[in-house]
Specification:
Strand order of the largest sheet of chain A: 2-1-5-6
Largest sheet of chain A: 4 strands, mixed
Number of helices of chain A: 10
CATH architecture of the largest domain in chain A: Up-down Bundle
Largest interface: A-B, 27 and 27 residues
Radius of gyration of chain A: 18 Å
Number of domains of chain A: 2
Strand content of chain A: 5-15%
Distance between the termini of chain A: 19 Å
Number of strands of chain A: 6
Oligomer: homodimer
Amino acid sequence: MITLYDLKAKGPIGTWSPNPWKARYVLNYKKLPYRIIYTEFPDIEVVSKEAGIPPYGKKPDGVTPVYTSPAIIDDATGTALSDSYKIADYLDKAYPDTPKVFPTGSEALQAAFYAQFAPTLSALVPFVLPKVPAMLNERSAEYYVRTRAAIFGGKPLDQWELVGEERSEAWGKMKAGFDKLDGWLSKGSGPFFMGDVVTFADFVAAAALQGLKIIFGENSEEWKDITEWNNGRWDRLLKDLEEYAGVDVEN
Amino acid sequence: MITLYDLKAKGPIGTWSPNPWKARYVLNYKKLPYRIIYTEFPDIEVVSKEAGIPPYGKKPDGVTPVYTSPAIIDDATGTALSDSYKIADYLDKAYPDTPKVFPTGSEALQAAFYAQFAPTLSALVPFVLPKVPAMLNERSAEYYVRTRAAIFGGKPLDQWELVGEERSEAWGKMKAGFDKLDGWLSKGSGPFFMGDVVTFADFVAAAALQGLKIIFGENSEEWKDITEWNNGRWDRLLKDLEEYAGVDVEN
C-alpha cells in the first residue's frame, strides 16, 4: 500500500495545494491504490521524520533540512520520498506496467519544462499566498503566515493585497505567464502537452490550476478570468483530466 | 533550391554564430540541398529587404523592424523567413518526408525547452561577446561593437573582460548553466535530448557549443574546460552530430 502525505485544510476542503495535487494526479492516473494522511504545516517535519521520509532539501543556510508535502511511503518497496517530481519518477520506475507520466524519450524535455514552470507563473505569488491562511486550521495558518513572511523579505501576508492599477498590472503579468504556456501548447496538436498522451507536464499545469480554483474560489472573478483566457484552454484541461482528479474530501 | 543567409566572418572562418548553425544543422539533417549567402552585419537589413525576407521582430521601440540571420528563401514554395526556430518548424512542415526535428508530440516541450535555453546559458554573454569582433571583417566588427554596446547599457565591449576572482565566479556561473542542461539530459537515456533520436533541442545545444568552440578557439583554456565539464558530454555531443555539421568554409 502507498501512503500519500498531503496538507491538511480547514473543514471540508480536500487537497488544495498544487504540489500534493501533482502526486495525487499521478497516483490516480496509474490506478495505484493509496491512502492519504493529511498533515498540518507545523507537523510536516516531525511526521516525516517519524515516517522515515528524507528531507526535500536544505534551507538557504545549507544545513537545516526542509521537509515538505507531498511525500509518499510505498510499503511494497520500503521506499519513502518527498517532492512531486521525484515521486512521479519513482512511480514510473517502480511500476513499469502502469502508464508512464514521463514517456520514454521525453524525460529530458519534461525536466526542462518542469524547471521553467514555476518561474513562468511566478506572478501568481502575490495573489495566491495571502489567500492561503483562510483555508487552513489555526495552527497551520499561523505557521504559514510566519514562515512565508520570513521567506519573502518580512512583509506580512495581509499587507500583500494589491489594488487599483497596481493590481491590474500584476494580474496582466499573471496572464502573460499563461499566455507563454499557451504558446508552447499551441505548437503541438493538443489537448495535452504531448498531444493526445497525458504526461507529467499536464499534471503540473492542472495542479496549479486546481490550486488557483480552490484558493480563489470557483465563483470568484479571478477564476472566471482564468477560465476565459487562451480560449478556455485551462478549464478544459481540468475537465480533460477530471477522471484522474479523484479528490478525497474527508480530511 | 533553398538559400540560407548566414553571417560573414573574416578570412577562412565559416559559420560561427550559433543561430545560423541551428539552421545549417537542420538543413543538413534533413539532407535538403541549399546554397549559402554570407552577409556582413550592417547589410543584413538591406539584403533581407531586397530578398523579401520579413523582419524577425521589432526593436524595443515597438516600431523599428529588426532583421536577423539566419534566414532562408525556399524557391520551391516561395517562402522567405528568418529565425532558426521558425525555419526548423517550416522545414518540418514543408518537407514531411524528411526526419522531423520536432517529433510529433514533442512540439510543446521542445518550445518550452527552447524558451529556457538561452536564459540558462546567459552567463556566457560577458565571455563571448567581446571576442566576436575579432572574427569579423572591419565593417561588421565596427557595427557589432557599436550595436552591442547600445543593447548592453552603453558599456564598450572592450571593457567587458573580467579578471581574477570576478572572472572565476562568472565562469562558475557559466558552468552552472551547463550543469543544469546536463541535469535535464541525465533524466533521459541519452545521448540526445530525446534519447537516441536527434531533435531540434540537440541542434540548439550543439550550435551554442560550435559557437563557443570557434569563438574561444579550439585550443583555448576555455574550450578545454568546457570539454571536461559533465563527463565530457559536450564534446561528445558535437561528435555525435558531426555528420550534420557540414561547414562550408568558402565565404
